[in-house]
Amino acid sequence: MFDLIIRQASILDGTGAEAFTADVGIQGDTITAIGDLSAATSRDILDLASSSSDPGRRHSAFRFPHSDFLLAPGFIDTHTHSDTYLLIEPSAPSKVFQGITTEVCGNCGASGAPISDISQLPSDWADKKYPGTWHSVAEYRALFEQAQPAVNAALLIGHNTLRRNIVGYENRPATPDEMRRMLQLAEESMEAGGRGLTTGLVYAPGMYAPREEIVALASVAGRHGGIYASHMRSEGAQLLEAIDETIEIGEAAGARIQVSHLKTAGRANWDKIEAALERIQLARDRGLPVMADRYPYTAGATDLDVVFPAWFAEGGRDVILKRLADPAQRSRLRTELLDSRPAEEWGGVTVGSTTHPDNLRFRGMSLLEVAEALDGDPVDAILHLCETDQLTTGAFFSGMSEANMFRILAQPYVMLGSDASLRATAGPLSHDYPHPRAYGSFPRFLRWALDGKTVPLPEAIRKMTSLPASQFGLNDRGMVAEGKKADLVVLDPAQVQDLAAYGNPHQLSKGIIHLIVNGIPTIRDGHLTNHHAGRIV
User: Fold this and answer.
1) Distance between CA 79 and CA 420 in Å, rounded?
2) How high is the pLDDT of residue 52?
């Protein structure tokens, strides 16, 4: 007796192989049989052949034997920032309607734990209300289990989070005692379930850390069989040097290496693509486990104050705001920002989330448009927004090559990552102005594969399933195979589409018919079931 049988499934199993037809039998949270199960009994059945006969359904150009629907492993979002949001919006709608069943959290050096108090979290996490308090990774896990999110989470440990705990925002090396305490905290976090260390080396306080500090902390991850993932020191002018540093740190630490959101940022750096890919391939040819992730958009997103130089970012939020209020330091900052790029290039920066009521009107506007509205220049607009929003302004940064993006996505070692925290169309996570990647990354990439704009569909599925599962040590997931956990997605290739846009980001994607997490249907017939079975993996 099975708990669930999916009949007449056209299966892309996640290995890159072509589709085949079979029934899939699930007992508990595990796939226990694949084949002809027509004589078997089950407590529940999803018959994909009968589902696809809906006369109101649009004709599909993508037909598979017996069914117009496709069954694949649940997608693994390899680069997310949902750590704390999973506690307050466990239904994770922006993720599950992309077919995502597992999120890899804690990226870019920022993780939800370990923390001394909630003020140590990034500003867009710290201002939310949570169902409890936590400090350690173990305490976070306990809250996660109480919240029972709809998706699984793999936890990476943020270097910035560790450094904030022990050193703070000072621009200096850690003392021997501080280093000992950071290493102890990293060890405790890995023992509690962490799967690796991440860095965000363009952000304070991570930008102040010498390489030997990062190697020491990444070595803790390496000893636990974990990963070293890095938002590198540069994705533009110093891209090649940053790739070298990332590989050298990972190799020294004995950890698997993940280049976060691989890109060539800024038109002047587009021609670095060949050298960047060559560096990674040479490392792989030497046997180093180097991989990368990428989102399918040519604009990135982060806090607007990322443009501040290191000297201005030192000390943390309160100190930065004091500097902004100081005429001499503000003037120095303004001059440096004016000198950093031509005025017209600021037109490639679009305002995202804002918090001050007077700044809501600027959401979705370029800095040039904001400057005009404020009767100033783009740098004046930056200073105004950062000061009045208390350093919580989000921004989208264009300047990536579409051709390079497709080239990167086609690399066999590059997997998909949204670089986004979960959102919802209602409730506490519906009020900001996110990058559309939060809602659309996976259906967007799928649509491109289905339409022949990127890698073939079986390879696209591999990049979202078995490839990240192998990189992040999720050995019981990522494939439709007997003995694997029953994280599965059923999608309609004719309907798969991302709907979120820069001008209207809070839009759920379409085309996900059923979603099963650890054997439990989370989406059925295109609707949430309110049954959640996510766990820390």
Assistant:
1) 7
2) 53
How confident is residue 352, by pLDDT bands cut at 50, 70 and 90?
very high
pLDDT in tens, 80-122: 999 999 999 999 999 999 999 999 999 999 999 999 999 899 9
pLDDT at 56: 44
Distance CA(526)–CA(192), nearest Å, equals: 36
Distance CA 403, CA 168 (A): 40
d(CA 220, CA 208): 20
CA proximity to 333, closest of 346, 321, 344: 321
Of 124, 133, 120, the closest CA to residue 81 belongs to 124
CA distances from 481 to 268, 326, 427, 536 (A): 46, 62, 37, 21
Q: Does residue 298 sit in helix, strand or coil?
A: coil
Q: Are 227 and 107 in contact (CB under 8 A)?
A: no
Backbone φ and ψ of 206, nearest 5°: -60, -35
- What is residue 110's three-state secondary structure? coil
Token pair for 428? 């506490």
Closest by Cα among 441, 366, 359 to 95: 441
Q: Is 60 exceeded by the pLDDT of residue 62?
A: no
Q: Strand, helix or coil at 431?
A: coil
Say whether pLDDT at 34 is over 50.
yes
Helix (H) or strand (E) holding 248: helix 239-253
Each residue's pLDDT tens digit, 240-294: 999 999 999 999 999 999 999 999 999 999 999 999 999 999 999 999 999 999 9
Domain range list for the chain: 4-72+478-495+509-528, 75-298+399-435, 303-396
**Topology, domain 75-298+399-435:** TIM Barrel (3.20.20)
Query: Mapping DSSP to helix (H, G, I), strand (E, B) and coil, where does residue 35 land?
Result: strand
pLDDT at 50: 67
The answer to whether 96 and 522 are in contact (CB under 8 A) is yes
Any idea what the Cα angle at residue 275 is, between residues 274 and 277, rounded to 5°? 65
According to the model, what pLDDT value does residue 345 have? 85
Q: Across the chain, what does the average pLDDT equal?
A: 95
The pLDDT, as a whole number, for residue 61 is 45
Could you give the CA distance from residue 148 to residue 536 in angstroms, rounded to a whole number? 10
**204 Cβ contact partners less than 8 Å away, ≥ 6 residues apart:** 160, 169, 310, 313, 314, 316
Q: Reply yes or no on domain 4-72+478-495+509-528 having CATH 3.30.300.30.
A: no
